[in-house]
Amino acid sequence: MNRFIENYQNQEFDLIVIGGGITGATVAYEAASRGLSVALLEKSDFASATSSATSKMIHGGLRYLSTFEFALVRESLKERRVLMNIAPNFVHPAPFIFSVYKKDKVSNFQMKIGMLLYELFSFDKNKLWDKSRKMPNHKSISPEKVIELVPNALKKGLIGGQLYYDCSSHSPERLTLAFIKSAVKYGAQLANYTEVKDFIMEKGRKWKTVKGVKVIDKLNNVLLDVKGKMVINCAGPWADILLGKAREKYEDEVLRRSEGIHFITKKLVEKYTFSGATLSGKHFFLVPYRNRTLIGTTDKEYIGKPDDYKVTRQAITELLEEVNQSFGEKEKIAYNEIDFAYGGLRPLVEDQTEDVYHSSRKYEITGEKKNGIAGLITVEGGKFTTSRMLAEKAINKAIRILRMPKNKSISKNNYIYGSEIKNFKEFVKEKQSQYADFKPEHIEFLCKSYGTEIDKLFDLMSENPDLKIVLNDDGENLAQVVFAIRYEMAKTLSDILMRRTGLGQLGHPGKETLEKIAQTAAAELNWDKDKINEEITLTEQLLQVPQE
């Protein structure tokens, strides 16, 4: 993968995709795999905003049943199965326990009905390419069984629970990257740290037509025009700001944004993700994550510019208090036990509800001719799980408008790049045997992260044994730092720690480890001492749990 923007020769693309999150990644892949020439532009790093601020799940959206969004639930469950097929190293069946208490607004009977519906909508869940990954049916469990499986659950008022299966997402950041690599495989060109500043417009009698975009290559501080027959705006929380540039109405139709935060703390749950309702009726999850617990999420309207967004102590405290009210028989979570916190903004297309928690997670694909603009499509809303289907529909629309050959979508029937694995368990066993000098659990983690690219990673270690140095309990190592830079377009220390690897996703990895990573990156990226110190400082700021 190389940043095409540094060698751009003024060619015209069929499609320019703005935004390198999961929506832009799947749209670029869908378009390139159907024969379109594609350029993808991301103003920061791939998956650096909303797509990295998830609960690390691929799920059907059980709570959307309460708002009667049956079509969304069915589509989500269908796409969950598709992702299990095409991305077997990233998406894995995982057991969930949804608790029911006397205080809850949803009764035990309603939960049972909801689970029956959820099961009905996922009738084809086990039509999987890998037959070893079948998902069991749900079952109701007693209060005693809930406590047996999750000993720290509150006992008072506990009626029972529902044990069911959804999916975990090993690394949303690397899953997004795998879709981007899939796009590159089919000829897409891309560039991170390339910001769209404006649109190139051609004025006609009836409307203006978008002919490309004006961008700045932020790494080289170069301004240039990129030509395209059509532009798809996949900028997520920034979508309305981009539309404002096209419409030349900068205060028009502001997108509604919802803040979602999570934090990492000590191990509180073992095998089962524990879910329940807070006193205010909102859902929370405690997710087993890398020998710790991931807790989330909030759903609170964010007012302000998306560029100014950051996680605050107040937001963390609000989530912490709600979780402590509804979980923790033996011990509560203290603020100083939080190792890392992260957050992001969800773009919402529905504005008819007072509380964004009850806003729909549906998506919209709109053209701009109603505003006098041709050659521009905007994709808004949606969720990680349904991103592939959203992309398929968006490219169907683009192909119709461009009058291009109606090649059928191949994305649901083909493995994404690096995930060409017929039986994941057997694949792990094979690699554990092949790399027997390494701990089996470390190989399994790397298999999940790299899939079939794992051999390429170990080739780097063979070339340079110093890269075998293990940096954390999951077996992540210095070879991954080199891999991220040489093959995955990582340009900053935070790119490496937060999105190409999980080295920073549990909090600060330690001063010595951070310096080792920075020194290894510096050798690849030709950083001097001042640049190394700058990168370490910026990364440490990202890793710090807010204190105010």
Task: Walk me through the structure.
It is a single chain. This protein is an alpha/beta fold. The chain folds into three domains: 4-50 and 173-253 and 363-413, FAD/NAD(P)-binding domain, CATH 3.50.50.60; 92-170 and 256-358, D-Amino Acid Oxidase, subunit A, domain 2 (D-Amino Acid Oxidase, Chain A, domain 2), CATH 3.30.9.10; 424-543, Alpha-glycerophosphate oxidase, cap domain (Helicase, Ruva Protein, domain 3). It has 15 helices and 21 strands. The strands form three sheets. Strands 4, 5, 6, 7, 13, 14, 15, 16, 17 and 18 form a ten-stranded mixed sheet that branches. A hairpin with a 5-residue loop joins strand 14 and strand 15 (283-289). Helix 12 packs parallel to helix 14 (511-525). The longest helix has 17 residues, at 70-86. The radius of gyration is 23 Å and the shape is globular. The protein starts with 11 loop residues before the first strand and ends in a 5-residue tail after the last helix. Residues 356-361 have low confidence and may be disordered.
Average pLDDT figure? 93
Helicity, as a percent range: 25-40%
Distance between the termini: 39 Å
Q: What structural class results from the helix and strand content?
A: alpha/beta
**Number of separate helices:** 15
In terms of DSSP E residues, the strand content is 15-25%
